[in-house]
Amino acid sequence: MSVIPAISIATIRQELQACEEDAEQFGWVISSIDENDLSFTVRITSPIDEEVYILYFKFDNYPELPPLLDFIDPVSGEMGIRRAYPLTKDGNFFHTHPIICHPCSRKSYGGFSGVHADWNLTGWKNNAYTGSLQTVQAVLQAINARIVYKTYYHGRMQKN
């Protein structure tokens, strides 16, 4: 099933509004929405070591399908490489592949990374592992926690 881009854009705009307080509190820099690519980025800086992480959030066919989440290396601009990803003590969320291994991330499904060929893209919110990560705000909060809190964060997945 395909979602009309205008619906995806309107949904994302509404969900991004709910992120305004978090963005201010944590210093997130959320880009403008790229309506052609149906994407935006979020810059998150770790207060632990000042490492900058740029999350790419592609939302075509959202909310029917989960967004495609990936990290962009802030130095080279390369996407999806180990240098772009944080290393966390929660190895079930940031895999070493590198992906965000969760139903909220399209990249973790079969046909993308192949890690979870057993998960269905459609109906992703009904996946038992999705839990509360069903909105932009919830996803960003979960990623942020793994970058700003010492209980999770362990630097960059691969040093330059």
From TrEMBL:
Name the chain's protein.
Uncharacterized protein
Q: Which organism is it from?
A: Nibrella saemangeumensis
